[in-house]
Amino acid sequence: MPPSSVLLVTAHPDDEAMFFAPSLAHYARHGDLVTILCLSTGDADGLGRIPADRVTVVDHPRLRDGVATAWPEATVADLVAAELQKRRCDTVLTFDARGVSGHANHTAVHRGVRSLLQTRGPALGVTSAWQLVSLGLPRKFLSIADTWLSRTLAPRGALVLAGGSLGTSLAAMRAHASQWVWYRKLFVLLSSYTYVNTLAPLN
């Protein structure tokens, strides 16, 4: 099976380290080419094997970081479309409708990507799309123990990508100096997302 070209769409520059590390590790093991599109500004280092020229960080006046900041769906869709026209990725990965934490920026990314793929996905060359399944509070902090539960409770048609590494996630987060505060260190240590991602089809 030939390698995929994957576009990961995130809201913030630390999202890839906090939530998607097992997925990135999976794609790296399989030789897939990963591009990251981050829709708000910040430090984009610490991405492991992903070269800097495969990372796009957007600085858009309508997309400002904020827990309660609503991002326009159409703006998100247009920026993702522009990236897909430039990169020609066949696979797209992003947040689900709950956005892991309910963060307004995360959920806006989901809505924008979903809208784009429903209307222009095939024309842009996208053949598969995945969303990171949000876990309830107890499971979110089961750490590596959630790997078994993820495999047992995965929804029909989902992918369970295990094999995330605490050391890799900590190193990636450390590169985001402004975000490397005690509660994020604790999050990475205890978070199930450090060790396993469940991806459901994004229809």
UniProtKB/TrEMBL annotation:
Pfam families: PIG-L. Its EC number is 3.5.1.89. Keywords: Hydrolase. GO terms for molecular function: N-acetylglucosaminylphosphatidylinositol deacetylase activity. It comes from the Eukaryota. InterPro entries: GlcNAc_PI_deacetylase-related, LmbE-like_dom_sf. One of its GO terms (cellular component) is membrane. The keyword Cytoplasm does not apply. GO terms for biological process: GPI anchor biosynthetic process. Belongs to the PIGL family. This is N-acetylglucosaminylphosphatidylinositol deacetylase. It comes from Monoraphidium neglectum. The lineage of its organism: Eukaryota, Viridiplantae, Chlorophyta, core chlorophytes, Chlorophyceae.
